[in-house]
């Protein structure tokens, strides 16, 4: 009886006093509580702040919600687009894999040919509906066209231009990152190999071999010439062999610990730029939104 009581007490103690960090950084529950909504976090950012100076939570393979065969190797997210917007995600990574030429651009819900695909125009409409109701916010969008999708780049560029022309007044496609006063209520497209009419972005290389390395030093090296004009993107999904869900459990925990320390000790908050994640939790998204923008003389 004494041993039973001892082990029961030990178990209760561990549950109460030793929570795991990964539970705060990683999420695989598709149900998003309204208490986790973070719809207006950009409202307090000064109008003259460039978007490139703000730490922004994002998702990698944002629409990859696939739950079928080999889902553990393919799925990257559990929340749909609207839930991601509600929880505070402001960067979306979309991929077009239309192997058969079509009259519009479709973006996939999964890798390869598996899973559902939807017209890019519908995605833009959902985002703009959100921005219509939350006009202080802005959304960054990256659309990647895979090589076997189109016979040549011009096909993709022509289709993209047709879609963007429908939403022209609500889309930013300039090379330099906009200030918040110009970005609010709009979608900011990033430049890609095929889609050239977008804002410049650069990989931060904060993660090397799935580990954060020398981040503060790298921020100091890049902040004077890149994050003041162009958007930095930190990807957390570098491995191609490990299951995304398993990798996210480890990487998100590293990121969570770093962000907590960075939030209290660093002077380079905003230069983290976009942080693109798999299976992020509401907690880690909130921490990113609480990082202060990088400050300097906004004179361009």
From TrEMBL:
Pfam families documented for this protein = PI-PLC-X
Protein keywords? Signal
Which InterPro entries does UniProt cross-reference here? PI-PLC_domain, PLC-like_Pdiesterase_TIM-brl, PLipase_C_PInositol-sp_X_dom
Task: Cite the Phosphatidylinositol-specific phospholipase C X domain residue spans from the record.
Answer: 47-192
User: Which N-terminal stretch is annotated as signal sequence?
Assistant: 1-24
Among the GO biological process terms of this entry, one is: lipid metabolic process
> Which Gene3D superfamilies does the record cross-reference, listed alphabetically?
Phosphatidylinositol (PI) phosphodiesterase
Answer whether the UniProt record assigns the keyword Transmembrane helix to this protein.
no
| A Gene Ontology molecular function term of the record | phosphoric diester hydrolase activity
UniProt protein name: Phosphatidylinositol-specific phospholipase C X domain-containing protein
Q: What is the protein's species of origin?
A: Astatotilapia calliptera (Eastern happy)
